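User: Can you model how adenosine monophosphate sits in this protein?
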Amino acid sequence: MKTFVVLMGAPGAGKGTQAKILESSLGLPQVATGDLFRANLKNETELGKLARTYMDKGELVPDEVTVAMVRDRLSQSDCEKGAILDGFPRTIAQAKALDTLLEEFSAKIAVVPFIDVAQDVLVQRLAKRAEIEGRADDNEETIRVRMEVYHSETAPLLNYYDEKGLLVKIVGEQSIDDVTADLTAVVKDVM
Ligand code: AMP
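Assistant: Here's the modeled complex, given as structure tokens:
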């Protein structure tokens, strides 16, 4: 059965880093909506132009647009066995849309690991990432907005998946290797 791992965590929690590591150990592709939007931005597609107006402010791209992009991506052949979702869903509406997609694809979510990192550590990490990677949306004002959006729009998903019995908390304030070890144990347990 087509199986998804949904990685949850605030901006800077390490979802992308861990998703890339899991990608090779699980043999499932990482589907990161932020990366998909950035690729569209780079290629100057219509979707990219639209996404930029939200991303530059740290706001979420509208659900309809995001869900259509994800549906498209998950229909591709490399996602035949499933995927590691990174940065999606980010709203309750997106989570419900994902539930509908699961029915459409006869797929399931195996587990929702939540990489838990304290707010002050996140802000420090994002500021550092800004220096290293130079991501346009890693500036002080945008980081503040993204954290607010995370708390108001995305954090409610923790409860949503907890009620479905899918949420597993991972301590995010340890070395990358230790987070990987914990995450791998959780995922291997259900796959
Ligand atoms: P990320 O790389 O995951 O931090 O995403 C960067 C930006 O892309 C976010 O601040 C949003 O503007 C946009 N974005 C990424 N994923 C989503 C999503 N699931 N829903 C809406 N907007 C998103």
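A couple of observations from the model: The radius of gyration is 16 Å. The chain has a mean pLDDT of 95.
User: Helpful, thanks.
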